[in-house]
Amino acid sequence: MNRRTFLTYLGSGAAALAAASAGLGSLTDKVQAATADHLFGFKTNRVSGYFNPIDPTDRDELVLPSGFKYDVIAAYGDVINEAGDTFGYNNDFTVFFPINGSNEEGLLWVNHEYTNPLWVEGEAVNGKLTNAQIEKLLYNQGGSILKVYRDQNGVWKMDPTSVYGRRVTGLTPFTLTGPAAGTPSVNGATSVQGTFANCSGGMTLWNTLLSCEENFERTASDAGLDDTHYGWVIEVDPFDANWQVRKHTALGRFNHENTAMGLSKDGRVVVYMGDDKRDACVYKFISNGKYDPAAGRNNSRLLEDGTLYVANMKKGAWVAMTIEAVRAAAEKASNKDELLAKFKTQGDVVVHAHDAAMLLGGTPTDRPEDVEISPFDNTLFIAHTNNDSHGNIHGHITRFFEENSDLGAMNFDFEIFAAGGRQSGFSAPDNLTFDASGNLWTVTDISSSSLNSGVFKSFKNNGMFVIPTTGPSTGEALQFASGPVESELTGPWFTPDERTLFLAVQHPGENTEDPSNPTSMWPHRPGDNQPRPAVVAITGFRLS
Predict the structure, then answer these.
(1) How far apart are CA 383 and CA 432, in angstroms?
(2) Can you tell me the mean pLDDT for 344-364?
(3) Hey, is 357 helix, strand or coil?
(4) How far apart are CA 84 and CA 55, in angstroms?
(5) Stretch 386-413: mean pLDDT, rounded?
(6) What does the alpha-carbon distance between residue 362 and residue 354 come to, in Å, rounded to a whole number?
(7) pTM
(8) For 128, which DSSP code?
């Protein structure tokens, strides 16, 4: 395939042909495996057409191929409802929920991961924040629910008068579920204050969303909060403000990046997760109960009762993280007494999930960030962003093959699907998503301090890439977008018909030191005095 002209292979015949040539069989035979993504439960009108991949650029703009455009839906500080709530800072994960099956009207959830004191709460004085600063710090993290629509001119907009518009923040009360709730491992808590450090997430099979608390430690410390109450996966129903938001402790507590949900062959819910830090593990949770489509959001309780597993990549095995297994391993450790005192209950296991995983032989990996299940063949794609302490400077994407293509399997094999570096044109893969042809879309996460310098110079600004997973160009990355100065592109999510791609532009101008001289002014709003993280809608995809 010519790198300069990429056919998206979205006709069903071409997609099936590509899959067959890769030995995967007909895609239509594989779609029966349900995965909770934008393709699940919707009739997809496949888009078609060519785009000319762009070259890397250091422009202070969201650069797209010819024929594509973006609309800014909401930026930091924008009012999102009639109560006066405002859009939070550093938007990340997005997920679109159609209203009445529409591809042009729905609810958009957007994560808010962290703040920048230069533009939000202000710097601490003598190492401490005031109560007013703490409130700003917590309010501007969490998530936003926006009512969005495409108008008669094809422009995507937010409706700030909608009853659906609301915030879920670091001030919102949450219920704890699962084995840690009410136990000494969380200091007896059954309800906790707020969510923050919300990085990525996922959609459930019952039309709610999961959002992941990642680097929670600094905010918890600055706000004087119990850090055992953070580092969890939260669940929200975007359509119902009265449905109690909750944190599912059965899914483990660590630096969560995202979730990928699917079904085992016997109908149990499976959730894959990555722990986004150096030398950390890949996990999956399997519910004890089976998914019932008729039960709707009552299926949420499946996430309260099940088994958490960690991947041992040397053995190709999923290791059950039960209290019995952890205590048995502790008995053999040199610091036996310390470990047995630490791990007394299953609540202790999930609260200290990383330590338990290491004890059980989980494989430490290179920052496992986004994990996604291919909706066509049930393979699992994992973005291992990088780990310079191991010499993995540019990262790679790993592909797991579950035994018998069963998400509930206890054994797997794997391959390195694509490696970052000069040869591939991308570095530091992060969020992932699939289109209807099985192409993998990824965004990159080169740190702002490294952009456009040293071994990262050739990549210029962070970008978005498309990587075919089947056919003769499998693994070949083609650049679709480039972000503004010192930004990171995050949270890609298609509408079901794939005519619109939602994308978050996070931390433009992140290295700004002098507010009167920002390093970026994106999104370049007339009269503005600062760069603003924003969520956009990209259009230009053509229907076949």
Answers:
(1) 7
(2) 98
(3) helix
(4) 41
(5) 97
(6) 9
(7) 0.94
(8) B
